[in-house]
């Protein structure tokens, strides 16, 4: 195995990872950033981003992430392909395994792995991602104004998404797979009080 020691390692290439790389680069730390299994993060599967500062006319998720990547590189970030497969955080320097062949010893470690949307596993979910199938009401709700939409889930997150969409869509169907809501009582109350949300158990 190859071993290398660096000052700053960033894991993840979404907005948080690239922002960390920009700041570290401007501080002359020369960070190394590993992109992970989805370079650019979740925004690369978003058709249009209209709520990111500096883009008054909106920007595609892919273009936004490319702009952030370019800016990070401008300040000296060393951006590499690869995913972390193991980490020993018991003492400094931290030992991070990339793939199966490389161990990096990092004095500073920034974990910016973001989140992964939880999909249902239906056959055409990926096919229609960004074209009617979404995992972020705040990101994409604008595109469903005055339309009928469905949210799947019965926890707090699903209820929050349904409530947000209720302010935009004509009707929101909250499809709950269990015979009851798992959400906190206050979220259940808010959902049940919205006239344009219909809960389907």
Automatic annotation (TrEMBL):
<keyword id="KW-0285">Flavoprotein</keyword>
<dbReference type="InterPro" id="IPR008255">
    <property type="entry name" value="Pyr_nucl-diS_OxRdtase_2_AS"/>
</dbReference>
<keyword id="KW-0560">Oxidoreductase</keyword>
<protein>
    <submittedName>
        <fullName>Thioredoxin reductase</fullName>
        <ecNumber>1.1.1.9</ecNumber>
    </submittedName>
</protein>
<keyword id="KW-1015">Disulfide bond</keyword>
<dbReference type="GO" id="GO:0016668">
    <property type="term" value="F:oxidoreductase activity, acting on a sulfur group of donors, NAD(P) as acceptor"/>
</dbReference>
<keyword id="KW-0676">Redox-active center</keyword>
<keyword id="KW-0274">FAD</keyword>
<dbReference type="Pfam" id="PF07992">
    <property type="entry name" value="Pyr_redox_2"/>
</dbReference>
<dbReference type="InterPro" id="IPR050097">
    <property type="entry name" value="Ferredoxin-NADP_redctase_2"/>
</dbReference>
<dbReference type="InterPro" id="IPR036188">
    <property type="entry name" value="FAD/NAD-bd_sf"/>
</dbReference>
<dbReference type="GO" id="GO:0046526">
    <property type="term" value="F:D-xylulose reductase activity"/>
</dbReference>
<dbReference type="InterPro" id="IPR023753">
    <property type="entry name" value="FAD/NAD-binding_dom"/>
</dbReference>
<feature type="domain" description="FAD/NAD(P)-binding">
    <location>
        <begin position="7"/>
        <end position="198"/>
    </location>
</feature>
